[in-house]
Structure formats: structure tokens, C-alpha cells
Amino acid sequence: MFKVGSIRKVEVKNFVTYSYAELFPGPNLNMILGPNGTGKSTMVAAIILGLGGNPKTVGRGHKVSEYVKHECDEATINIYLQGERESDFIKITRTLTAQDRSVWFLNNRKVLAKDVVDCVRQYNIQVDNLCQFLPQDRVQDFAKLNQQQLLKETQVALCRNDLIEKQESLIGCRENHKNLTESIEKNGTKLQENKDANMRLEGKIENFGKKKKFLGRIQDIERKVAWLEYDNYYEKMSETKQDLAKATQIYEKHKSAAKPMEKEIHQAKKAISDLQHTNSGVTRSIRENETSSRNYMEKIDQSKEKIREIENEMNERIAVIEQRNQEIDAMAGKIEEMKVAQRELLNKCGNDDEVQQKVTKMTGEINKMRRHVTELENQRDALVSAKQTKVAQLRAFENERNRLENVKQQRLNYLQRIDNDAYQAVLWLRSNKNLFKDEVFEPIMLEVNVMDPKNSIYVENVIPMRDRTAFTCCNKDDMNNLIKYLRNEKRLTVNVLYAGDRNSTPFHSAIPIEQLRKYGLYTYLNTLFTAPEPIMRYLCRTYKIHNIPVGNAETNRYYENLPKQISVFFSDTMKYSVSYSRYTNAKSTRQNEIHSDGGFSISVDVLHVERLATQIQELRSSFTNCDSQTKEYDTQIGLINDKISKIGDELKYIHGIKQQVQATESRIAAMQRRVQEMRQSGSNGDEIRNQARNKMKKVVRAIRQISLDLKNTYKSLSVLIVKSQLNSIKIDSVRRQAAYLENKNEEARRLMKESEATMSQVKEAYANIKGQAKAALQKAKGLSNNFTPDDEGFDEFREVHESLPSEMGPLQDEKHRLNAKIECLNTADDDEMREYEERVEIIRNLQETVDRAHVDLSKITSRMDQLREEWLDPLRQLVSEINTNFGAAFERMGCAGEVSINPGDDERDFSNYGICIKVTYRNGEPLQELNTVTQSGGERAVATAVFMLALQELTPVPFRCVDEINQGMDVNNEKRILDLLMETTSLPNTSQYFLITPKLVPNLTYTRTTMVHVVHNGPFIEQDRKWGVSRLCNPQGVAIR
């Protein structure tokens, strides 16, 4: 009979290695068997992920995309849980995509992940509880749980959330209890300190009472004085108010007298403005006439200047005629001299035919020598060009070599980032190689050079990081010394390897690569990189790199057909690992996608570096020959150029004389043309003088007309000046009248300002006295509880007030006498008094706080005792039952074990409570606590299995799942555990149980409630249509949809 919440069916599609698979479990023990790698644990992963778990719980990955079958886009998990009735099922569906997304369905209805988690929680299914789900990769985690974690997991597994809540409440109460106790101690100490401090001030406080009485009497005197001062200020304020009324009357009188004069002054100013406006028009006309007069005068001056210019022009033209005649005579003489010089030059160089023959001969020689120079220069330039080409090649080779050498530094920097200890060790080794007998190699990642960086991904997926950062020694003594220097003295955490015997048999590939090319494999891993021979020997011996072939995309099609000798190989994107079952010799292939971490992608091609060095040396040697040939060409070119230069000098001399003759002839012709032009362009002086007289007459007639216009303008200007002077006289008269009125008005305004200032002073005095009176009144009322002597509220002060003198002198004397008495008293000052009163308040508050804390502490103690009893009693009962089941199981196996509660060092520290498991597997040995140090892996697995079985009868969970817990056990313990499991799971009302194991133990006694599921998965399995998977895997024949 299936319990509510138990699993009726698990269905997966494209999940890990399965394209499609179904599991129909029984209601009790379900043993899932199959060879390693067939997918047993995959069903456990499907249950965990399908019921809301995450990949971390499974322990085999961190992303859901890792559970999608290779070359598929999504995977689907369907889990059917038993409902309240036999025919009711809850279907939970989870679709996983290659993009790390999940889609959830509940009874074929799309929901959120939270809805699925809420659904499974109501059936007490806890996929993250190791006491209910123990995946293969988490078996060791169970043994690593400390006592406190084990107690929590046990309470969760037993679905005793009430106990968990009570423990958390106890922990909170304990924390509050601890805080209250500390608070009481702290406040009690502070309370006593304040009481002691106040006791030291009690004498001064008593004198303070007397001082307070004297101060009260002084306050009465000050009150009387304040009221007397107010009365004085009030009388002064009345007198000042009368003065203010008189000052205001005088100010108004002067203000009234000033108003009529202001009107007369305004009328006078208006008359001045009108006269000024009229006079401005006259003044404008005067300026216009003055401007016209100046223009006429300027025209007359310009006419006179024009007459002078005509005279100057006439004189200049006459002087030019005279100068021209002199130049004609001089040029005629110079022409004769140049003709004589021309005849002399012709005599020196001979006739034109002789000169031409000589020039032609010399020019031919120069051209021949220049052609020879050009040929030599071309040959030299070819050498220089070839050298420049080689220089460019040399620079390129050197840059390439520097780049390759810089790669070594990049790899060293990468080592520093990933392992600083190894980096520091490399720096030390480079300075201390003399300490070792044989060669010591730096970390493998610095010595190995992948010839093609794209192949580094294969090397990175074979050589682990611990070996990449390890130093390699060829001598064992060197290895021991290096470990001593680096680990013991330098305190550096580094790995050191021994390369092995040099005389060992060389490593060769088991199968020639030519026989593997048909599978897409083209080379072995050891051919992809170079390394020192000791390192290569170590890698071949340790990782068999000489037998790891590398292929391309075609390898993914033929990986099942490779020879049996190949156990590890690569395609373009996958790493394949082949193993064979010890029982059936069945082949199991694991494939993992390869990823690069960049560790070997920074590589140096050593052969290429050596080729570059040879080429650089050859180029530098060729530069010497090139320089010597270039120097020889330069010498020959220099000699020929010297000959060309001498012949050229002779040609220049001949051409120079010829050019002088031609130039002289040209100059003679030009001067003759100039003389002819000057003689033809000549004119006489009389004609020039007549032309000048006619021009001057025209200018004189224009001056006469301008003089008439100027005379008329002067007449108009005289009339306007007289009008302007009359207007100025009128303006001065009106201004004097306005000035008289303003002076008279200024006197009246002065008297008004003086009276206003007097009034302001009186006002200010009145305001000051009023303010002083108001302040005195406020002071007096402040000393009288805000009452005046006329108020009924003043009666409490009236008797003392009337008994005091009404003169200021006696009152001040009495006040001084009281102050003298106060000074004679040794009293507490204001700060001490304030501190005393504050401490009184603090003492009262602290006493109340301590009292309340004691009450709260008593309540918390009672509450904690009650919760402790409510939590610990049922917990002890549960642990006692677990211990009974646990001990009985171990006793049946011929061993001993117990489960108990460990309260720790402080029974009130409820966070430190835990479950202690003790076991012994040998007679005569004491019980020892279960941990990862004392017991072996198999012994821990036995204790884990027995502990989970001990929970079986006490837990209400619908099912449990344990994956290969029997791995690591010996045959006897394995049979004992399985017998115990058979017996426990066959009891009535037990939960459904899943046990994943790779094999069946011989002679095992099976119960009728046990169901064995055999995983049929792999290349040797027939298609299910030949034997009917549905009929065999669903023996109940239940239609679950």
C-alpha cells in the first residue's frame, strides 16, 4: 500500500544520458541496480530536481543546463506522487533548458517554483535533508556533519518542527537571560557607585538649605527693588511724553511755513527753463552760421593751395625738361663706351664657329662621364636598397623574437596571479641554481610550450593545476633539498615532482596514429607541445599523454568504434573517457565538454625562436659586405665628379664671356631706344607757363564768389549773437530771484529739520525710557509670579513687600549682609547640587530597572525551564528510540553503537546541543565518536546507513533515497546492511525506500516487499520494442497519467 506522498512513477526525457526512461517504484524497498555509468544516480538526480531541488543538492553540477542531454535543447522530468486515494496522483513537471531556465507544471498547469515547493512540503518531502536524500556525491558530507548540524538535520528529518522552534526559543531565552544577568550586574555596580557619591555630599547639601533660605530673602529684596525701579521709570516716561508733544507742535509749525515758498521757487524754475529753451534755438542758429563761415574760409584756403600747386607743377615740369636733355647727352657718351668694351670681349673668345666646336666637344665628355656616374649610383643605390630591406627584415625578426620572449614574461605573470608562492619560488630558484647537483626545472606551465595556442585546451584538460605549478627535479637529493629550502625555510606552499629514472624505457604510442585517422584522430597529445625531456617523461608516465589521441568533429561520430587500447581521447569539443565493467566487461564511455582556462594558451615556439636567431646573425654578417661595396662605389663616383667639375668650370668661363657680349649688345640697343623716345616726347617751357596761367585765373574767379557768400553769413551771425546775449541777461535775472527764494526756503527747511531732529531725539528718549520701564515691569513681574501689587495674586508677597523699606539704600545694605552670610557657608555649588539631584534621579531609575530586570529574569528562567522540559523530554525520548534501533542494528552485525544527546560544556547553552554517534567494529575496543578521522570510509557508510534506518520507524516522510551507500564496505558489512535494510523496510507502515547500488550481494535474503529495478542502458541493450519495457517496468499495471 503506497503512503500519501510516495513516488508512483518517474519519467525523464533527454535527461543526462537518457533519451527516454520510466521508473515505477514499489511501496517499500526499491533496489536500483546497474553497472557504473549506466545512469542509476541519474534517477536520484531526477527525483531531487523534479521535486524542487537545485543542482548543488545533487552535488554533480551547479547549472540545470548540465543535466540536459548532449545536443538537445531541453530536458523534461515528470514525477507522479500518490494522492489521498489510490487512484489520485499529483503530477509535477519540470522542463530544463540549455539556457539554464526552468519551467514548472503542477497537474499540467503552469506554476511557479514556489508553488511546487509548497506542494511537496505538505507531504514532508525534504530534498535538501541528508537524512532523507543522500545522493552518491553527498555521502561523505553526511559524515562531515558536526553534532549540532546532525541534531538539526535529525529534527528536520523527523518533521519535528515544534522541537526546532522550541530549541530556537530556548536559544533566544538563553541569550536574553545572559543579557539580563549582565545588565543586572552592570546596573547594580552603577547604582552603588551613585549612592556612595551622594553620601559624600550630604553635609554640603544641609548648608545648601540655609543658603536657599537666605537666597529667598534676597529674592524678596530684589522684588522690592524691581518695583521701586519700575515706579521711577514710569515717572520719567510721563515727563518724556509731555516733552514729545511739545517737540511735535514746533515741527508742524515750521513745516507749514515752508510750503508757500516752494510754489514760488517752482514758478521761477519754470521761467528759467522756458528762456533756456528759446535761447537754445538761437544758439543752434549761431553754430550753423559759424559752421558755414568756417566752410567758406576752408574753400578760400583750398583755392589758394590749388594756385600754389599749379605753380609747383609748372616749375617741376620745366625742371624735368632740363634734366631730360642732360640725360640724353650722358647716355650718348655711355653707348660709345659700351661699344668699345664689346669689341674687346669679341677679340678674347674668337669667332662663333670656334667657340661652338669647343663647347660641343666638352659637353660630350661631360655627358659620357655623367652616364658612367649614373650607372655607378644605380648600382650603389641597389646595394643600399637591399641593405634597407635586410634592415627591415632584421627589425621584424628582432621584434618577433622580443614578442616571443615577452610571452615567457606573460606566463610568469600568469603564474604570479594564480599561485604567488610558486612565483616567489621561481624567482628564488633562478638565483640559487648552484645549490643543486642536477638540473631543476621551473613549474611545468613555464617549461611546456604548446606549438599552436588553439591546441592548448587539450593539454589543459589533462594536466591538473597542481602539476602545472610543480617544480621538476632529475635527482632525488635535489628534490629533498628543494622541498627543505622552499617549504621549511621560505614557508612557501609548492609542489615538487621527481622526473623518474633517465634510463627507463622510452614511451611510444600503443597504436600508430595512421590507424586512427579514419576516426577523425590526427595526432597524439605529446606531439602538440615541446618540453624538456625529464618533464615529458614524467607526463608520459603519469598521464599517458603518448596514448591520448586528439581528433576533430568527426570523432564525435565514431567514438564508440575506437580500439580498446584507447581509454582517453579528444574530439574538437569533447573529452571521452572509456572504462570497462569488472563484472560484465561492458564498455562505459563518459564524455565531458572541454573548457580552456588559458593556462597553456600563452606559448613559445622554441624552434621558431632558434630559426629567428640564425636569420638575425646571417643578416648582420651581410651588412659588412654591403658597406664595403658601397664605399668602393662612392670612391669611383667622387673621382669622376671631380673631372666633370673641371670641364664644367671651363664651360662656365666660355659661357660667361659669351653672355657678357650678348648682355652688352642688349644694353646698347635698349639705351639707343631710350634716347630716341626721350627726344620724341620733349616739349618747351613757354607752352607749360601759358597753361599754368590759364588754370590760376579760373581759381581766382571762384575765390571772389566765395568771399561774397562769407560776407552775408557774417551779417546774419551778428544779429543772432545780439539775441542770445539779451536772453542770457533775462535768464540771469530770473535765476537770482529763484536763488533768493531757495535761500529763504532753505532757512525754513533748516528750522524744520532741527525741530524734526529734536522731536526724533525726544521720541528715542521716550522709546528708551518706555523700553526700560517695560523691562523693569517684566523683571518685577517675573520676580512676582507675573503679578503686580494691584493684583490679588500678589498677596503671597504683599506682607514681606510692605514690611521692607521703600528706599533703595537700606534695601541694598540688607542684600549685601545676606550675601556675606552665604559666602561664609561651606555649601555645595550649583554643579554639585545638580549632580546630586541628577544622581538621586539616576538612583531611582536604576533601582527600578534592577527590580524590573530581576522580575524579567525570574520570568525568563521559568520560561526557559518550561521550554527546556518541553523540548528536551520529547527529544530525549526520540533519541532514546533512535539509540535503541541503532544499537540493536549494530548488535545484529556483531558490533556496538549508541546515539546520545551531547549537551556540551554548559547545559544552558542550547545552541551547543548535538547528537553524538559512537560506534566500534571490533571486540574489546571502546566506543568512538563517528568522524572522518577515526573510521574508514566503509565504516562511516555503515554507520550512516544504520542511523538512517534507525529513523525509519520514527519519521512520517513518504520516502527516502540513498545512492550507493554500500560503496567502500567490505562484503560482510555490505550483506549485514542490506539484510538490515530488508528487515526494516518490510515492517508495516514504513516509508518507501530507494537504494541505488551497482551490484547484488550474493546469498541475500529478499522479502516479498522488495522490488529490484535493473537499469538497461548502454550500447549492448536491445531496443525496448523487442521485450516490452512498459510490461516489465510496471508490474502493478497501474495507468498513471
UniProtKB/TrEMBL annotation:
UniProt keyword annotations, A-Z = Coiled coil
Domain of life of the organism in this record?
A: Eukaryota
The UniProt entry, under Pfam families, shows: SMC_N (PF02463)
Q: Read off the SUPFAM superfamilies from this record.
A: P-loop containing nucleoside triphosphate hydrolases
- Which named protein is this? Structural maintenance of chromosomes protein 5
The family classification in the record reads: Belongs to the SMC family. SMC5 subfamily.
Q: Which InterPro entries match?
A: P-loop_NTPase (IPR027417), RecF/RecN/SMC_N (IPR003395)
For this UniProt entry, which segments traverse the membrane? none
According to its UniProt entry, this protein's organism is Zophobas morio
Q: Coiled-coil segments, which residues?
A: 293-327, 359-417, 654-681, 731-772
* Residue ranges constituting the RecF/RecN/SMC N-terminal domain according to the UniProt record: 7-998
Q: Which GO terms describe its molecular function?
A: single-stranded DNA binding
Query: A GO BP term, please?
Result: double-strand break repair via homologous recombination
Q: Name one GO cellular component term.
A: Smc5-Smc6 complex
Signal peptide range equals none
